[in-house]
Amino acid sequence: MDIGGVKTETNIFLAPMAGISDITFRTICKEFGCGLTYTEMISAKGIYYKNNNTYKLMKMHKEEKPIAMQIFGNNPDIMADSAIQMEKAGADIIDINMGCPTPKIINNGDGCALMKKPDLAGKIIHAVVNSVNIPVTVKIRKGWDEKSINAIDIAQIAEEKGAQAITIHGRTRQQFYSGKADWEIIKKVKSIISIPVIGNGDIFTAENAKKIIDDTNCDGIMVGRGAHGDPWVFDRIITYLKNGVLLPKPTVEERINMIIRHMNKMIELKGEYNGIKEMRKHIIWYLKGLPDTNRIKRQIFSLIDKEEIIKLLKGYLDSFYFKKHNNAQTTKI
After folding, report:
1. Which of 6, 242, 243, 250 could be disulfide-bonded to 254 (CB atoms 3.0-4.6 Å)?
2. Which run of H or E residues covers position 96?
């Protein structure tokens, strides 16, 4: 896929997710064929006022490239200045967040709140586009609520102001992540604008991925919650789109090994205490759907030592295969 001259190996992307899409998770997803990763959304004001924690969010590994850095804010000048800093930090693409639905963001007039102010949204896009030498993209939602569906209008403004691609999440801000994503709005936008359109919302399986592309004719897709605890989803989607083969989901052993590997990478980046603390949610996601994991999930939240967590996980793995073997023996008898 080509976004303003930036070429990606596949058109299956990892969504920017606060507290989730850090370096560790992004690099793992990249290994499974993710064509483009996005940083967690980064505050333009945080960059402008040189907040140390904000600058940490711009760190990346060279193997991640190409990478998009996502920025949020509502002041065109500050957004433009901060985009320059992102370009200097190594971003290949600047993505403007106009879709985040969380109260903390929209109460400041950022994120999806900008969809209620098309003129301001246009000024921001124009300012950022004219401040950097790399492509600028925009991520939006269907609209604020069902009475104000304006994704088409915002998409047209984005194209007019120089954006090189647009991502559309098929839900309104009012929906958050509830209900069903409306892919029809993605199709409508795609039929009207000429820049690439990336579809987002309710993509959890390879079949979902094929259907959204077939139904909307979108140029690429962005996987968010569907990648939680399942970076293998990118490989399954790519394989299915290429040759119609549905790869099996990872085995229990593959999941446990990935948890340990992911945790080690997280600890290397953030230290054992913070790394384990942030890893807990990922562990829960990796274990989702596996039998007899309630006890482990409860214990995970009380452990702060890496070796204790590894012992717990390996104990579960041994127990799983022991029960599976016994059940097989019983069936034969």
Report:
1. 250
2. strand 93-98
